[in-house]
Specification:
The chain is an all-alpha fold. It contains 8 helices and no strands. Helix 2 packs parallel to helix 4 and helix 4 runs antiparallel to helix 5 (158-173).
């Protein structure tokens, strides 16, 4: 009877996390419900960013309540344990990728024809991406990846399966942000986001620390800061030609690292 109750509780926890993940994904993609009542105009900042950031706060509150009261044993990895060692081991790779991304945006978007205010650059190019990093790592790695790993627990490759599947979903989820763009942009965005997801998933499972992918996710996203100074919409071809192979190599590095360390 005790074993039956344990299995039932485990299924309820998995079902709860699955539903929470879907709800957060919907909120993240649509901006709902903040899009219904948040419309803040400050300086030359696009009001959309305040709407999205307000939604990030709602997502955080929702996740906190659900996990605390319905899934109190679910491990996310918001801890200092493993962070410093993870930064020493994988941080240099993240910094290199971020620098390459910055260069790609810089050379691809020149000449810069906009003069945004300091607060616009700060909010749209920095603060907003803090929220993106926290929220996306929370539900893609902290919830979805761990959920898939648990569902495939009978397979000895369950961690690899979880990292790959969550990365593909992560990549496909970014299609919504490039709808209407040329097919080259759409395919490139999805592909390089999958490579990024493989890296974040790998370092997350190697360190069991969610702060590590959050920090590197933020650092890599901020590399797009030059876009704040350009009226070019979407991505310049030169930017794509630099970023895409970079993330293909990053994805390959992540898979090779997983394979190598699993054999040791």
């Amino acid at each position: 009877m005790a074993m039956s109750n344990s299995k039932s509780a485990d299924r309820r926890e998995l079902a709860t996390v699955f539903i929470l993940t879907l709800v957060i994904a919907f909120m993240d993609i649509t901006g709902f419900p903040s899009s219904l009542f948040v419309n803040i105009q400050i300086a030359d900042i696009n009001p959309m960013y305040f709407t999205l950031m307000a939604n990030f706060i709602l997502i955080g509150l929702l996740a906190f309540v659900v996990l605390k009261f319905f899934c109190p044993t679910w491990y996310l990895g918001f801890t200092s344990k493993g962070l410093l060692a993870g930064l020493k081991k994988y941080g240099i790779v993240g910094v290199i990728v971020a620098l390459i991304g910055f260069i790609a945006f810089y050379v691809g978007l020149r000449p810069f024809d906009l003069k945004p205010s300091f607060v616009k650059v700060l909010v749209e190019g920095v603060v907003y991406y803090i929220g993106v990093a926290v929220v996306e790592e929370l539900y893609i790695r902290g919830l979805l990846l761990n959920l898939i790993e648990r569902l495939f627990s009978k397979s000895k490759h369950n961690t690899l399966i979880a990292i790959v599947l969550s990365s593909v979903i992560f990549g496909l989820g970014h299609i919504f942000g490039v709808i209407g763009q040329p097919i080259l942009v759409i395919v490139s965005k999805v592909t390089w986001t999958i490579g990024m997801g493989l890296f974040f998933g790998m370092i997350y499972k190697k360190t069991n620390n969610l702060w590590l992918p959050i920090i590197l996710h933020f650092l890599i996203n901020v590399c797009a800061l030059p876009a704040s100074f350009s009226s070019t919409s979407g991505y310049a071809d030169l930017t794509l030609y630099i970023i895409l192979p970079t993330y293909l190599l990053l994805g390959a590095y992540s898979l090779l690292t997983l394979r190598k360390e699993s054999l040791e």
